[in-house]
């Protein structure tokens, strides 16, 4: 009653290439040539990207360093407070 029916596919499901179609002229286009202005733009974009990524990484490293320093200061303060309580008892 509730049995699934598997459809019958008359065509093969594997990937195949057709050999009767001729390759078009667009398949063999030469690579794009960069003009001097294009090269300058590409170099400027790459430099900007490197500077932005470097800035982000340095700021993340600075945030981690500041957090570690604040945790260390809190640990020293807590240790001092706990040692002070033990001396007064």
UniProtKB/TrEMBL annotation:
Residues 17-30 have a biased composition (Basic and acidic residues). The chain crosses the membrane at residues 34-54, 60-82. Keywords: Membrane, Transmembrane, Transmembrane helix. Residues 1-32 are annotated as: Disordered. It comes from the Bacteria. It comes from Streptomyces amakusaensis. This is SpdD protein.
